[in-house]
Amino acid sequence: MADAFNSSWNLFSKNIWSSDPEMNDDFVSDDLTVLKLYRKEAYAIAEKHDVEICDIVQAIVSMKQIISQGHKNKFQNFAGIDFNKPVNRSAYLIRYAACHTGLVKQAMWRMFHRKPSIFVDMLLNREYFNVVSLGGGPGSDIVGFCSALQEFSNCINSLDLTVVDIKAGWVGVLQSIIEKVICCEFKNFSFSQMLKDVSVCTQFVVADLTNEKFSENEDLIDALVVADVVLMVKLTSFLPPEEKLHLILNVSEALHKGAMLIFIDCPYPSESFELATSMVNLYEEQIKYDLDNSALGAPVAIESSQATVAVFKKL
């Protein structure tokens, strides 16, 4: 196992990174592939539920307005978007999912380059790797995270991927995406490379992460206590301050010693994390991701996303 890890790490360092942690051409290739992938999933949802393309376009326009208004009001009394409606799931996949996947992938690659020691011990000692996405919807953050791990696929025998979300409409979407990725059409996608020799298990947990009865959701707690990595991507920015604090404290209490919490969002609720005294900050960086959608002619997708990346370890 140690030899496999060392081999992967040497290959990763030699072939992927130069002296400057910038993206290589694989990112551009992945941008185009992931745009096609999510568009295909969006159309599959639309076809299954008899949703017209014009309805998806209108849902995208409405989604933009709702989110913009939410930002203006700091998401106080934010009713959210009903992703139990198929048209909204399709709209999200087309507009936001690809850029969020790219953002997470870039964040992880930069982290591996700048501070590789963060994950070395975890990858060396985990044949079974558990990743939990909080508020992850279709699992676009998981796709980005695992894409960045492709060089270490021979260190991991099994991936357990769990999406936690309040909207049950997302059930099965990550599994559907994985099944599409395995097909020849997407064989060059870095996420597909990651899945070649790895057993993958997906599950979906329906949970209100802001509910006062957080600890009473057995499925949620069961997922968190075995998690090696918890992803908190583009989640807290949609919550008022008091709910951010409760969420961060509840999650930190549930994690086992050594588990990682990866925060990728903007703004960064530093005061809330400072109150989570069982977590230590290992890494912090501001990043911006620019999605290359020119070759696909997909201007409807957001073209950039920025965030603070912060990594915490449970003491």
TrEMBL record:
<dbReference type="Pfam" id="PF11312">
    <property type="entry name" value="Methyltransf_34"/>
</dbReference>
<protein>
    <submittedName>
        <fullName>Uncharacterized protein</fullName>
    </submittedName>
</protein>
<dbReference type="InterPro" id="IPR029063">
    <property type="entry name" value="SAM-dependent_MTases_sf"/>
</dbReference>
<dbReference type="InterPro" id="IPR021463">
    <property type="entry name" value="Methyltransf_34"/>
</dbReference>
